[in-house]
Structure formats: C-alpha cells, structure tokens
C-alpha cells in the first residue's frame, strides 16, 4: 500500500523520495522509496498520520492509516519507543597535572630538589623515585636528607617497587623528568632495560607517547653516550643537558640552577617565573 496516490507521489518524488509525518500520539513516521516502490519504514504506527513531502512543488497533505497488513514484518514497538530515563553519571573532577620526578646518582642533586620545589609551588602532583646512589650523592652535595626530599613530593616510591602505579601505562601522567640523569640510567632507557622503577617508568612514558625529559649530566661525552642520546631522542625523549646560560647575568649559583629548572619545566608547558627570559639586546 502506498502512502500517497501515484499521481501525487510521482509529482513530488519522481524515482526516489521521502515522506515524513507524525501520528496523533506523537510517534514520528518516516519512509523512503528506492526504485519503483515504497520499500522500507524507519518507524511505523497503527494510528492516522499526516504525511507531507518537503520537496513538493505544492502543499500535498494526505490522511492515511497504516495497519499491520501494510507490511508483513511489522511489529508493534510502542513499548520500546518510550524514552528511558537514565540517571546521569557524575563526571570525575579535573585532576591536577601529574609529573614523575626521578633522581639518579649523577652529580647535580640540587637540580632535582629545585624541580620538586617548583612543581610543589605550581600545584603539580609529583611522584618521586630516588635510586640508591641518588641519596648518596644528595647527602654529599647538599644539606638535604633523603627523607626531607621525599617529603617535598606528593608520592614517593622505592626504586625496587616494580608494582608501583607509575610502572603501568594505565596510570595517567603528564610526563616524567629524570634529573639528574646518570649515563647508566640513560643506557637503560635507550636499551629498554627496565631493571628498576626509574627505567621502567621512563619506558612506560615513552611507549605511551608522553613527555620524557632526561637531564643528562656528564662531561665530556663518549661515543657510547652520544649514541644512547640519539637512540632515546629517536624514541621520543628530550635530552636536556643542564648547560649554563649567562645572558641573564647570573649573580649566584642559585640563579644558574633556577634558569636550568625553568627551562626544563618549559618543556611541560609550566611557567616558574624564576628566571629572566631573553628579549634581545636592550639599548641603553
């Protein structure tokens, strides 16, 4: 059974077309033609409907009644057409930015300490991992203790704890910085040798395509060091040697450290505000 007379259908549609309407109970009805006849219904209803064609050259409105005999596969889906009220699932609050900070046994422990202090001030959630030799170097180079540095972080993990959250890619972080980064740790990351939590966390950050910054602290560099730096760079890491800068006219060692830490955290789109940026030569 056609939904409109042949003359009306041909004048409105031609070979193909669409009729839309709504029944007395508000159920939307739509059917369309493929080829020579009306072949399919999207929705159907047993009530009287008003159908009109949007492309008709004149306003054609027809009263038609669709019954179960009009189509052999008709089933009454009135019950399933009702809108189901579903409770809204509350969205979790936006989390703080989260960065892993790893400290290894290379010289330059104060860089790691200053990084933790800057991230704490910026309200960034930090996960700290310190190797055995990082604590030894820290004690030798500064007045900080391992316990005091761990207290600067939101979470501290043992470098032996391979079941820590940061050892899994499903734990969302915004990046990782290894500061300072020894050549042993650099080699482990380059080779994918996850023998402790520092190397494992770095490996996870790489595979998840997140930001990994290695503050490589060694001088001079051998060909092995340079090859390892090239390998981790090709894998997506950033090698950041803490090179001193003098254009900001540093007056103390702390000025040099603040500049290095600020440039490090630039890579995570974080602004420390602790150093003067280059603005070109200034005329007197």
Automatic annotation (TrEMBL):
Annotated positions binding dimethylallyl phosphate: 247, 263
EC number(s) recorded for this UniProt protein:
2.5.1.129
Binding residues for FMN: 105-107, 131, 182-185, 217
Q: Where is the Flavoprotein domain?
A: 97-267
| Principal subcellular localisation of the protein | mitochondrion
Quick one: where's region Disordered?
66-93
The entry's keywords: Flavoprotein, FMN, Mitochondrion, Prenyltransferase, Transferase
Span of the signal peptide = none
Q: What sections of the sequence does the record tag as coiled-coil?
A: none
Q: In which compartments does the protein localize?
A: Mitochondrion
Q: Which reaction does it catalyse?
A: dimethylallyl phosphate + FMNH2 = prenylated FMNH2 + phosphate
Question: Which Pfam families does the UniProt record give?
Answer: Flavoprotein
PANTHER family attached here?
A: FLAVIN PRENYLTRANSFERASE (PTHR43374), FLAVIN PRENYLTRANSFERASE PAD1, MITOCHONDRIAL (PTHR43374:SF1)
Member of which family? Answer: Belongs to the UbiX/PAD1 family.
Fill in the subunit field for this protein: Oligomer.
Per its database record, what is this protein's job?
Flavin prenyltransferase that catalyzes the synthesis of the prenylated FMN cofactor (prenyl-FMN) for the ferulic acid decarboxylase FDC1. The prenyltransferase is metal-independent and links a dimethylallyl moiety from dimethylallyl monophosphate (DMAP) to the flavin N5 and C6 atoms of FMN.
User: What protein am I looking at?
Assistant: Flavin prenyltransferase PAD1, mitochondrial
């Amino acid at each position: 059974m056609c939904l409109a007379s042949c003359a009306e259908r041909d004048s409105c549609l031609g070979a193909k077309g669409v009729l839309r309407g709504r029944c007395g109970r508000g159920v939307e009805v739509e059917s369309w033609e493929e080829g020579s006849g009306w072949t399919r219904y999207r929705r159907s209803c047993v009530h009287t409907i008003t159908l009109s064609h949007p492309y008709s050259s004149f306003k054609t409105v027809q009263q038609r009644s669709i019954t179960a005999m009009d189509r052999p596969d008709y089933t009454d889906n009135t019950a399933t057409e009702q809108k189901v009220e579903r409770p809204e699932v509350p969205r979790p609050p936006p989390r703080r930015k989260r960065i892993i900070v790893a400290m290894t046994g290379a010289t330059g422990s104060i860089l790691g300490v200053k990084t933790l202090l800057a991230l704490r001030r910026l309200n960034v959630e930090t996960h700290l991992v310190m190797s055995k030799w990082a604590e030894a170097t820290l004690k030798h180079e500064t007045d900080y203790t391992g316990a005091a540095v761990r207290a600067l972080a939101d979470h501290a993990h043992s470098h032996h704890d391979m079941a820590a959250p940061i050892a899994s890619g499903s734990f969302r972080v915004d990046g990782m910085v290894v500061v300072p980064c020894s050549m042993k740790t650099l080699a482990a990351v380059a080779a994918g040798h996850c023998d402790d939590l520092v190397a494992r966390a770095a490996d996870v950050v790489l595979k998840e395509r997140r930001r990994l910054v290695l503050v490589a602290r060694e001088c001079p560099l051998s060909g092995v060091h340079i090859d390892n730096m090239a390998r981790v760079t090709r894998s997506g890491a950033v090698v950041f040697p803490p090179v001193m800068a003098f254009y900001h006219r540093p007056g103390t060692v702390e000025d040099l450290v603040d500049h290095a830490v600020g440039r490090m955290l630039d890579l995570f789109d974080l602004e420390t505000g602790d150093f003067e940026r280059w603005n070109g030569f200034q005329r007197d």
